[in-house]
């Protein structure tokens, strides 16, 4: 007779455990996460309000930044409140449908934000390497089309993940050793083969997001070459300041995300699970918290606009 733990069915609910192995520290862990979440909310809302309110900021760079701000707000709000409920009240139950929806949103926002960073790299490339065509190339209608394309691309890439998860037969084990639902964390509870899920995840990470990273790297390589050819030291410093801010955000976005992705698939035995999960939790709150700080502090126009409000 088959073991009951391997009987295939679709569970009504899953149980998120938070950070496995660190359950007794959940209350203490929640304090910095709560603080970072509040800072992320306030910082991004202030930044978004400033860009929307100030007509002089309705320029390509700031419009792309506002899209990044919206993505950050959605990413942190999709995950952190549920995380805090687990840390504070041990409320880890989540319905099957809500779990699939959360997994979709987390990956959808990640892919969309990657596209936004590509657009921001292109914006800086045109502004520094081809400034005479900047206004004619990046009109408001072009910017809206780029942002719409980012949303459509993300939807088309991530929607198959929903069907890949729905097609699986799940075991009696409904415990997800994580603080939020994501594709492979849910798929690993299945009794059937998840090779297609693993393969699709690798294709998305290596081909699509890898192309994004290569495009960004090439763009900034060309930007840096152009910056060092500028005749004015002041112009070089201004351009380098902007590029440094963008590169910091790109590193904050991709480094923990790819580390979490590859360790989840290939480094599960060599890296403690709580380290992987803790990093995945930090990823959804640290970049959203730091993005408005980096832009607000380093961007004189935004800083002066906020101070005059």
UniProtKB/TrEMBL annotation:
Q: Does the keyword Membrane apply?
A: yes
Q: Which Pfam families does the UniProt record give?
A: 7tm_4
- The chain positions of domain G-protein coupled receptors family 1 profile read 43-295
- On whether Transcription is a keyword of this UniProt record, the answer is no
Q: Which domain of life is it from?
A: Eukaryota
Q: Which UniProt keywords apply?
A: Cell membrane, G-protein coupled receptor, Membrane, Olfaction, Receptor, Sensory transduction, Transducer, Transmembrane, Transmembrane helix
Q: Where this protein primarily resides, as one coarse class?
A: membrane
Which CDD domains is this protein grouped with?
Answer: 7tmA_OR52B-like
- Subcellular location per the Swiss-Prot or TrEMBL entry: Cell membrane; Membrane
* Membrane-spanning ranges: 25-49, 61-88, 94-122, 142-166, 198-223, 244-263, 275-297
**Protein topology in the membrane:** Multi-pass membrane protein
**What PANTHER family does the record tag this protein with?**
OLFACTORY RECEPTOR 52B6, OLFACTORY RECEPTOR 56B1-RELATED
Q: What family does the Swiss-Prot or TrEMBL record give for this protein?
A: Belongs to the G-protein coupled receptor 1 family.
Q: What is this protein called?
A: Olfactory receptor
| Gene, per the UniProt record | LOC136991056
């Amino acid at each position: 007779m088959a073991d009951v733990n391997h009987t295939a069915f679709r569970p009504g609910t899953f149980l998120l455990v938070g950070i496995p192995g660190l359950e007794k520290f959940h209350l203490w862990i929640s304090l910095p996460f709560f603080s970072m979440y509040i800072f992320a909310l306030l910082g991004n809302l202030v930044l978004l309000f400033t860009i929307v309110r100030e007509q002089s900021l309705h320029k390509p760079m700031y419009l792309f930044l506002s899209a990044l701000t919206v993505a950050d707000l959605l990413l942190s709000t999709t995950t952190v409140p549920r995380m805090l409920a687990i840390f504070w009240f041990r409320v880890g139950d989540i319905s099957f449908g809500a779990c699939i929806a959360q997994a979709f949103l987390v990956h959808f926002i990640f892919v969309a934000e990657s596209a936004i960073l590509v657009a921001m790299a292109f914006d800086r490339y045109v502004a520094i390497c081809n400034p005479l065509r900047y206004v004619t190339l990046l009109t408001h209608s072009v910017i809206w089309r780029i942002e719409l394309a980012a949303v459509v691309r993300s939807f088309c890439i991530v929607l198959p993940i929903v069907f890949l998860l729905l097609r699986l037969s799940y075991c009696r084990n409904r415990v997800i050793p994580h603080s939020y639902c994501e594709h492979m964390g849910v798929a690993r509870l299945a009794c059937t083969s998840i090779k297609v899920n693993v393969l699709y995840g690798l294709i998305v990470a290596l081909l699509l997001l890898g192309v994004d990273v290569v495009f960004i790297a090439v763009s900034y390589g060309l930007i840096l070459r152009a910056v060092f050819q500028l005749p004015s030291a002041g112009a070089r410093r201004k351009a380098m300041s902007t590029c440094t801010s963008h590169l910091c955000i790109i590193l904050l976005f991709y480094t923990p995300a790819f580390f979490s992705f590859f360790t989840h698939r290939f480094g599960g035995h060599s890296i403690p699970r709580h380290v992987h999960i803790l990093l995945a939790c930090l990823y959804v709150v640290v970049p959203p918290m730091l993005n408005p700080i980096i832009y607000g502090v380093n961007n004189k126009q935004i800083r002066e606009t906020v101070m005059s409000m």
